[in-house]
Design a protein that fits this description.
Layout (H helix, E strand, L loop, with lengths): L1 E2 L7 E3 L7 H11 L4 E2 L11 H4 L4 E8 L4 E9 L7 E4 L1 H6 L2 E12 L4 E10 L15 H4 L2
Antiparallel strand pairs: 1-3, 2-7, 4-5, 4-8, 5-6, 7-8
Length: 144
Amino acid sequence: MSSLFCCDTIKPYRPQYLSHQSKFDNFMSWGSFPRVSLVKNNDKASRDFSQVAPSYAVQLVKQANHGPLESKRYFIPTDSTEVDFVEVTEDDLIQANFQKVNTYKNFKCQTHNKFFEVNIYQKDPVNAHHWRANIARPAVSIDL
């Protein structure tokens, strides 16, 4: 288990109001320090996208400021109220056909010299009848 953020002093970096603002607000409210999370490998039901049917997913990228990536974590809302989230794997998002949306927010912690990027993923709007899992393009290879 590890906490999502390093402390409670993170601040928005170059804040802007976005069309997906409520999704960011819901996630940041839920994930505020000292929230901890982990992927429960034995609890497939909590990550069964056919039962949960999330409308979006959140990617949290943590890195040292101007340094290497420390982690990439993914979360989905547990229900339509979007007040609780559960951590999922990148493979879960690939299997559910989620794609990165061109919307993000950045946060910075001056105390620990950490930088956080929060991205939104949504289902790819293609015909699911003709879709197949494209494992040739995992998010780690397309995220810049």
